[in-house]
Amino acid sequence: MTEPKPNTPLIPPTSPSRNLPDFKKSVKLKYVKLGYHYLITHGMFLFLSPLVVIVAAQLSTFSFQDLYDLWEHLQYNLISVIICSTLLVFLLTLYFLTRPRPVYLVDFSCYKPEESRKCTKRIFMDQSRMTGTFTEENLQFQKKILERSGLGDSTYLPEAVLNIPPNPSMKEARKEAEAVMFGAIDELFAKTSVKPKDIGILIVNCSLFNPTPSLSAMVINHYKLRGNIISYNLGGMGCSAGLISIDLANNLLQVHPNSYALVISMENITLNWYFGNDRSKLVSNCLFRMGGAAILLSNRFSDRRRSKYRLVHTVRTHKGADDNCFACVTQEEDSEGKVGVTLSKNLMAVAGDALKTNITTLGPLVLPMSEQLAVLDELEKNLQLSDWHMEPSRMTLYRFGNTSSSSLWYELAYSEAKGRIKKGDRTWQIAFGSGFKCNSAVWKALRSINSAKEKNPWMDEIHHFPVDVPKVSTI
Q1: Looking at residue 342, what is its pLDDT?
Q2: How many angstroms separate the CA atoms of 50 and 150, rounded?
Q3: Per-residue b/e over 180-214, b at no fewer than 16 CB within 10 Å?
């Protein structure tokens, strides 16, 4: 979400369900300390920079005679010359060694499936009924979930799920994966004019489909990427894996200069459609849809001018040490041996706790220095989200459904298509995932995004949004 504009209305106090928890009472101080740890660890160059500026300012006041007198003095004081030179070399070396390498988001693309993959809520219910695997009670349960889900009638499902009867298989799952990954990458290469051989780092994240050869190997083979590419395939990490991939790419770009990193975030529906009657596993069927995104990152200084954003911070929070958090999203078999993803009833409570930890850690990194001493108060006061802030998320859910780790990029694409991104704006991406994890990334816009020149899945229809999404949409 982008930073709030000065005239953006906040949620009125009469909406208690949208208010954040009381941070002062519920967040441990250690997470605030952790935020300051990030600030100190990654901010050494911030403390050296003022010293350099002060020295430069002082030298600028010297006259030619002052400089001549200083030279005369140093000629007869060899020890002072050696000490000053050594100190200067040490400070410059320390500065360049501790300065983090800037990472730029050159561009990104979101996959838009073909029209034949569209699935209305009515089609969804008809298909579910025709499979013959669901009880009448659970068909009504799915209908109730769909009517309250916030999904529209233009989301997408893979061919294997829409077929009658459905024919999920490894072949069909690979077919879906190839369509999503290659579709997003082709558009990204066309937008950036980057050649496949230029990619030095490749990271693919997909939680529930992890074939052999891996998805990253499929990309390398299809685009004939170079033999020394550094590639990773992240699996089982849930909807927050997209930001984990960004964090991993950021760390790799710190030690591999002059490099491009290609990140692909997606989920695979074909082999993960649940055909049983355990209600805790049926919710995923109703919410998750086909989609994916490709992101190009660079640490090349020459790419700064054409890049859209600079990565400012990433913060990762993992609550897996807590048994309740660990078990709240689990892939498992039901009593009949059918595999699905179970969502526990305490999922929202777990997510809320992870969110509190994450934003309390993030606060010291992004709040102005004048607000650092009152960080908890500022978080509590400033993070109430208005309808304006929530619009990209709600419209993405309505138009594309929950596309898992790639949803963040459809939301950012919506903001760009609406012309909301201005130079200097900071954008906060936050995602939750199984484990249980909450991850954040903060980007700074390097230029204003001209929506008229953008190519993304919203552009042909952005004039229709936002739309009113009723709390209950009768099927």
Answers
A1: 93
A2: 50
A3: bbbbbbebbbebbebebebbbbbbbbbbbbebeeb
3-state helix vs strand vs coil in the chain, percent to 5: 50, 15, 35
How far is the C-alpha of 5 from the C-alpha of 293, rounded, in Å?
Answer: 28
Task: State what percent of residues in the chain have pLDDT above 90.
Answer: 68
Q: pLDDT of 147-160, one tens digit each?
A: 999 999 999 999 99
Separation CA 209–CA 433 (nearest Å):
16
Q: From CA 390, how far away is CA 386, in angstroms rounded?
A: 6
Name the token pair of 53.
């500026």
Note whether 274 and 341 are within 8 A (CB).
Answer: yes
Following DSSP, what letter does each residue of 464-475 receive, concatenated? G-S----S----
Positive or negative: CA dihedral 383, 415, 432, 139? positive
Identify which of 232, 250, 380 has the alpha carbon closest to the alpha carbon of residue 314: 250
Higher pLDDT, 32 or 23: 32
Q: DSSP for 168-230?
A: --HHHHHHHHHHHHHHHHHHHHHHH---GGGEEEEEEE-SS---SS-HHHHHHHHHT--TT-E
| C-alpha to C-alpha distances, 357 to 185, 189, 325, nearest whole angstrom | 34, 37, 13
Compute CA distances 32 → 38, 119, 365, 420, whole Å: 10, 45, 10, 31
Residue 225, both tokens: 């990427």
Task: Tell me how far apart the alpha carbons of residues 406 and 293 are, in angstroms, rounded to a whole number.
Answer: 6
CA angle 146, 151, 153 (to 5 degrees): 100
Q: At what angle do helices 136-147 and 279-287 cross, to 10 degrees?
A: 40
Q: Among 27, 187, 162, which Cα is nearest to 107's?
A: 187
Residue 450 CB partners (closer than 8 Å, separation 6+): 419
Query: 54-58, 194-198, 253-257, 342-346 — which is least confidently predicted?
Result: 54-58
Q: Which residues contact 310 (CB under 8 A, 6 or more apart)?
A: 102, 103, 104, 105, 304, 443, 444, 446
264 half-sphere exposure, CB direction, 13 A CA radius:
35
Residue 190 has which token pair?
């066309």
Q: Distance between CA 79 and CA 126 in Å, rounded?
A: 88
* pLDDT interval class at 76 (50, 70, 90): low
pLDDT band at 381 (very low <50, low <70, confident <90, very high): low
d(CA 123, CA 117): 11
What pTM, to 2 d.p., does this model score?
0.82
* pLDDT exceeds 60 at position 41: no
428-443: per-residue pLDDT in tens? 999 999 999 999 999 9
